[in-house]
Amino acid sequence: xSVETLVDNPQIPAESAPVLxxxxxxxxxxxxxxxxxxxxxxxxxxGEGCRVWDxxxxxxxxxxxxxxxxxxxxxxxxxxxxxTRQIQTLHHVSNLYYVxxxxxxxxxxxxxxxxxxxxxCNSGAEANEGAIKLARKYAHTVLDIEFPxxxxxxxSFHGRTLATITATGQPKYQKNFDPLMPGFHYVEYNDIEAIxxxxxxxxxxxxxxxxxxxEALQGEGGVRPGEREYFQxxxxxxxxxxxxxxxxxxxxxxxxxxxxWGYENLGIEPDIFTxxxxxxxxxxxxxxxxxxxxxxxxPGDHASTFGGxxxxxxxxxxxxxxxxxxxxxxxxxxxxxxxxxxLRAIASKYPDKITEVRGWGLINGMELNADxxxxxxxxxKAAMAEGVLLxxxxxxxxxxxxxxxxxxxxxxxxxQAVEKAMVSLIASTVDS
Length: 432
Prior knowledge:
This protein is α/β, with parallel strands linked by helices. It has 14 helices and 17 strands.
């Protein structure tokens, strides 16, 4: 079958399609797959644009997008074409050889950011691991620090590997995984005095702080945007001391905020930043990016078998080029404003239930009153019943992260579903 035929008709040929012996059974699934997720009772099997369908044929508007990952939605023609072409050309080779498309992707990222070097891996956690290793080597070889410490924020999230859950300032992710990795210290987010005090305390008598690692907007921590003045003061501290500023852009990068990178909303440039999620549009890829001065890795210092493979890089490059070609940043800005306005209108009707709506672009959170029993999971389930998929960001924040191609009509539909969900939940509370 030719590439052209596959692109025009991308469905799996009948002869190669998996044979399902029976209807989907969650009990059978749970017998074979580790229970690392508290899954909603929903099995998805197909998607197109901003919509997905479950195994029963029911349609949903997808405002989860793989948790801010499906940049171009589902089955985007540009991605279908690239996936088809690349899998028939070359899908994987070792990084012992040059991979031309990897270099093209690196060049695009450098041309559209403050970065000057790129390392590719497979996930956000891996990208953050790379950033941590890079900062530690920089500390030893450039700053002459024997026992380096990286400052991170309370309520942050940087991944689930041993190093990144240690960097993550949320004890719930660390429980039962001790001993944790040394070399991290937590401070309050958006509190510049906490940064100053931590540096003074840790560095007393012997310089140790080598880097400050933050999210431009805390995603898992409740969709909390960074304050512009806070980050600008951090940038000044780093410039004065030689401390590296690392930004975790895994969730907010790649156009999610209406700009290519979250840090652009803050008026600063990091020394190192990371990307994943939206970079591949749903195909696994991650990247650690840095200024040339931080590029201290040498052969053997860091590596990834699958990182930067031709398949993932070709798809990621297509996502990047489509983001630019289709002027999706403008759509993100417009649809994000529409979504926040609509959510605030809903919040105004339920001031005792909803305390705040906040976010940038198409990453937005609706926070519930801490004193009520209603949780984010309750709203997610109620919205699901109305045909819209949402995702919690903690027990009291509902997160809205649709594909960047979402239309005005789809935003309106989602808002209507949220309002119906609220009405249903309040009615059930009154009845009970």
